[in-house]
Every structure is written in C-alpha cells, then in structure tokens.
Amino acid sequence: MAAKEIDQVFLPWKGAAPLAARMRPRTLDEYVGQEHILGPGRLLRRAIEADRIGSIILWGPPGSGKTTLARVIAGVTRSHFVTLNAVLAGVKDIREVVEEARQRLQAPPDLLGGPRRTTLFVDEVHRFNKAQQDALLPHVENGTVIFIGATTENPYFEVIKPLVSRSRIFQLETLTIDHLQEIARRALQDAERGYGKRAVRVEPDALEHLADVAQGDARNLLNALELAVETTPPGPDGSILVDQAVAEESIQRRALLYDKDGDVHYDTISAFIKSLRGSDPDAALYWLAKMVRAGEDPRFIARRLVILASEDVGMADPQALGVATAAAHAVEYVGLPECQWNLAQAVLYLATAPKSNSAMGYFEALKQLEESGEDEVPDPLKDPSRDRVGLGHGQGYKYPHAFREHWVAQQYLPEGLQGSRFYHPGELGFEAAVKERLERLRRLQEEGLSIEKRLESLSSGRARRLKAQIEEHGEERIRRREKIIEAAVLSTNEAVLDVGERPGFLAWGALERAPLGKVVALAAHAAEAERLRSAAAAEQIDKILAAQAGDLLSLPFAAGAFTAVLGASALCSRSDREAIFAEIFRVLAPGGRLLLFEPLYSEGRRLSEELDLRPLGEALARRLREAEAAVYSDPEDPRLALKAEALEAFARKAGFTEISYEKTAETVKQKVTPELLGRWFSEDRGQGRDSYEEKLLRFLSRAEVAAYRRLFQEQLLGKTLLRPLASVILKAKRP
Questions:
Q1: Which of 149, 275, 551, 571 could pair covalently with 284 via S-S, beta carbons 3.0-4.6 A apart?
Q2: Mean pLDDT lowest among 404-413, 497-506, 587-596, 662-671
Q3: Virtual CA dihedral for 621, 622, 628, 630, nearest 10 degrees?
Q4: What confidence score (pLDDT) does residue 262 get?
Q5: 505-511 long-range contacts, Cβ below 8 Å, gap at least 24?
C-alpha cells in the first residue's frame, strides 16, 4: 500500500491534520521505539516483513505507537486494510466490514491481483462491549478477517477471553526520552509532513524538557512542539526559536519538578510510600501533592496505593484494600483534577490505618514450594467427581458447614508440610481478633489431627474390646456405662480418674472420648491393675489408659491432677464417704467435674416379693417380711444406708458447687442360677460383708431360713427375673 493510500485510510483529512497525526511513521524504518518486539529478528518484525500477520492485540500506554504500528502494517500488507474506532463503530459497522470481507474472499482474483484478504484494525478495542466483541469473534476464528486491536487497557481483563485466545498479544512500552527526542528531531527535519521547509530551531534544553515532561507520550510531545512552533513569532531573520521558556509554556509544566534521569521520580514515590507505611499523613499528603503537581500519572499513584493496602496495612484493616481500589476506580472514572480528592482521601485512610505485613506469608509459602517442590494433594481434598470410586479421591472430606462454628479439624496441607506456618498475624486493629481466633483454631487443628491418629488406634480394636467387656460385664451394664459416659460430657483432652467398683469399667468407655488426654483406672489389687495395663498395651493405647493399684485415699495423686472423676458403685460399699468426697475435691483441678452413679438398694424391691410365700404358712410369711424389712433398713450396712440426699450433703461439705442429682429406675434381667442362690444363701460370703442369709439369721431360725431357701429353689431356680433397679447420678463441680 502506497503512502498516499495509507493516509487515505488513517488521515482522510490529512491537510488539516495535527503534527502528531501527520508524522505517524509509515514504514518500519520510520518507526521509533519498541525494539523488544520490532528489533531485528524479532517475531513481530519478521511477520510484518513477510506479510504473515495473524490476529494480534497491541497493548500499551497512550502515545506509545499502537495506531502507528497498525499504519506500518497497512503499508506492507497485501490484504485489504479496514480501520474502525471502537468509540464510534457499532455491531452494524462490524457486520458491514465482515460482509465485504466475505464477498472479497468469494470473488475470483482479478487480473491485477487485487487483495482478497481483509485486515480489520480496531482502535481502542477495549471500548467494544461484550456484544460487539462477540459479533466479531466468529469471523476472526474462521479467518474471514485478520484482526488487529489496539488498547490502553489490560486485554486479559478488558477483552473477552475467546478473542484474546485467538490473538497474539504484544505489549508496547512507554517511549524513553531518547525515543521522544528522536521523534521531535524527525518532525523538525521532515519537509513533507513536518517543519523541514521552515526555519525552526529548538534549543537542546527546550527539546530535553519537552521530551522529559511528555512522559513517554509521543503525541503529547508533538502536540507541545506544534504549539510552540505555531505560536512563536519569527525573529528578524525569519526563523522561529523555541527556547526553554517557550517549551515550558507550551507543555504547561515548569521544568525540573521531576528530573530527566528519573531520580526525583523514584525518590519521591519512595518517600511517599515510606510516609504511608510510617503512618505520617502530613508527609504522605505533601509527597502526593508534589507528584500530582509534577505531572505524575494518577493511575500510577493509585496502583501504588492498592499495593500498599495489602502489603503494609493488610489484615490489620482489611477495608484498606477496598478504599484503595475504590480510589483507583475513581481515578479512572473521574480523572484529573477532581480525582485529587479521591487520592487524598485514600492516602489519609492508609496513613492512619493500623499496619500489618502478614501478607508476606504468601512469599514464605512460595519459597517453601520452590525449595521442596510440589507435594501431592491429600486424598480427602481431591476432586471426587472423577476418581472417587476407583482411587478414593474426596473420600473422608469433612464439610465444615456441617459442624459447629462452621469448622472442623482436618488436614489441608500436604503430608510433609503438616504443621507449617506461613501466616503470622499481627496484634493491631482487626488482625488482633483474627490472631486470637486463629491461634485457637490452630490448637484445635493440632488436637484434632492428633485425635484422628489416636482414634485410628482406638477404632482398630474397638469391636474386640467391646466384645470382651460384654462378656465380662454383660450387655446391660455396658449400656448403663454408655449413659454414664454421655452424662459426663467429656472433651478430647480430659484427664479422667475412674474410681468405680469394677476396675476400668468406666475407663474403657472414657478413653475414646478423651483421646488427647489421660484416663487412669483404680484397681483394689495389683493383679487387676496389671491386667488392665496389659490389655491397654496390647491395644497400643497404653499412653492414654493407665492403671493404679490401691485405694483413692492411699494413692499419692497430685492436687488438681484430674479434670474429671467418674465412679460407678464407688461409694455403695464404703462407710468413709466423707473422706472420699474430700479427696476427690483435692485431686480435681479448678473447674473439674465429678460424676457418680450409685445404686439405691434400699429403694429396690425385696427378694420375698418375687415369691409366693403361702406354702410357708401365714405366720412364717409375716415374720419373714418383718425380718426382711429390718434387713433393708439396717443403718450399719453402707449399701442400704446410701441415700441421694446424703451424697449431696457430702459433696456440699467437701466444697463442691453446681451440685445436682437425678434418680433413675430401670428394669434389669436376672437369671436365678445355683451360683446366685449360693451367694444369697451363704454363711461365708466374704468381701467383708454378710450375705442375705446371714442377715436373716439375726431375726429367724436356721430352720425357717432353710424353708425360705427351699421355696426359692422350687419357684425361681432357672427362671429370669425382671427386677427394678433404683439408682442416682450425682454431678458436681469444683469451683
């Protein structure tokens, strides 16, 4: 395409065009700057010279040469070149260009070899809305048109992704002062488009100033140069002299606000950022004013504010990022001079906000990743949509919203990094509360993950242990134990003491509720304690469950050693209950809880009520009932003397608070076997207490008791009785 044809595409009003428009380069040799993409051997230069340009997007600041580069491409391409401005064009214009391009492709080549391809240049493509970009997309994709877009905005955000993916993006950089001076010299020397036919002389300092203050914008430079030349009267010799004063006036900025080498620019922005970081609003406003007055791009200032909002204020005031981002948006939306209000407000907010640089934790994580390489994602965190069945991906994941506080302990880091800490919250502003909550969650996380590992050991032998305990204690007692443990409401890290009559009976139930704590069971004899220790070691839970041989009143437990004391039938056979309550109070830590389950034998049904006493005769039956009543009200028998009210009184005297008790009644099955009858009717019961028969003999003759026993054998031997069991659960707290 000849220069005249190029001008018809880009400058249909060439005669009245401003200097900046007239001086647009038409060839690669005339083009100044962008060596990183147009230097010898660079991809874009090779493509232009070979006329193999595909769809591209040119992205760069104003005045960096985007439209000029399109003009150069138009000069060498053998395709039909069409230009649209996104501000003025609409979907209708796009459709017309596309239809003409389609016809051009379908038409037979003429004898002169006219172009069949169509290159469409869209200036300010970011101003196309989504509908306009969508209208263009299919025709770029099928090759109907070759697309060249120019934009000052980030195309990855402002241009639809399908159009970006079908185009190669070239980023143009701000022109340097040397580039701008070269452009100005060419304008002064060009006789056809510039001032080469006129006697114009620009002093070196003036040219330097124009290039400096233009800030990389060739259009700004040429407009200032044109204003200086056209408004300066010729001297006596007919020449026009542009000196420092004219240059300053033409570009409306005083010289040396920012020096040409950029030292003042970088020093000022450094002072500005350090004033903000140091919470000095007065200094921050001063440096802001200097930058704005010097002509600093307000968008550059806004970008630095957005960065500082996260880098230096961060989680101490999370609103800071919103304020800075809103100011950046206001700069784009309002522009100078009004956006100075928005910048000043954001500066004051950031300068006076509490500070935290805890976002640096991201770079710690990045360093860890670079040093250790990539670790595998834990299976519960993997995407379950593809390999859940075959590989178990996603299995075991716990949905936090299904738990209290919308949180649950589970592993999120790779196995080798578990426990790593990248985020170190500060102690100012909003982050102080974040730190307190995060420290609590991290403790719970560590506890929770430790719980899981201990529970693996616990769960592996749970079925085996339960079977053994049912065989030892019976299903009814195990069910009763579960109710007692539930009533205790144990947490995961409790230190629990089991003082019950049956060694380890409650301890085995408590250990699964307190896998991070310690459970100690008392046993009256050393052999029983050793049996418990051996069982715990066999199950690999001996770090949780321990056994001590001896009595609570004789063992040297430290004061405050336990957070919970549990007991089942711990007091029913004891006469030293007051001393036991006092010792339990001593070994409990402040805030520790006591829970006791005790049977109330005095409130149970009498054995004689299970029989038909008529075969004994009315007189013996009456005497038997009287004797049995005397037995059940014997004040010397601790089992029968135990009352719920007495337990409450002992607890209160020991110093416990929040004391409460609940009486329960349940029906238990009891099969009458020869062994059971032998325990009831025996004169050598052992265990330090009289048997049922021995107590009856205090009121009846041996012959009468023997007749009573025979009646038991005749009516109940081999049968299963449903006997009511009255009991009490007492709860108390150590203040």
A1: 275
A2: 404-413
A3: -160
A4: 47
A5: 505/473, 505/477, 505/481, 505/568, 506/481, 506/566, 506/567, 506/568, 507/532, 507/545, 508/465, 508/469, 508/545, 509/481, 509/482, 509/484, 509/485, 510/485, 510/564, 510/566, 511/458, 511/541, 511/544, 511/545
Q: Give the model's confidence band at 648: pLDDT under 50 very low, under 70 low, under 90 confident, else very high.
A: very high
Residue 308 has pLDDT above 90, yes or no: yes
CA–CA distances in Å: residue 458 to residues 287, 454, 465, 483, 511: 66, 6, 10, 20, 9
Using CB atoms within 10 Å of the CB of residue 498, give its burial: 0 to 12 exposed, 13 to 18 middle, 19+ buried: buried
DSSP designation for 594: E
**Three-class SS of residue 86?**
coil
Residue 5 has pLDDT above 60, yes or no: no
Sign of the torsion formed by the C-alpha atoms of 576, 578, 579 and 585: positive
For the residues of 599-630, what is the DSSP string, one character each? E-GGGS--GGGGS--GGG-HHHHHHHHHHHHH
Average pLDDT of the residues in 659-678: 87
Among the residues of 309-396, which ranges form H helices? 319-334, 339-352, 361-372, 384-391
Where helices occur in 11-65 by DSSP H, the ranges are 19-22, 35-38, 43-49
The answer to whether 119 and 80 are in contact (CB under 8 A) is: yes
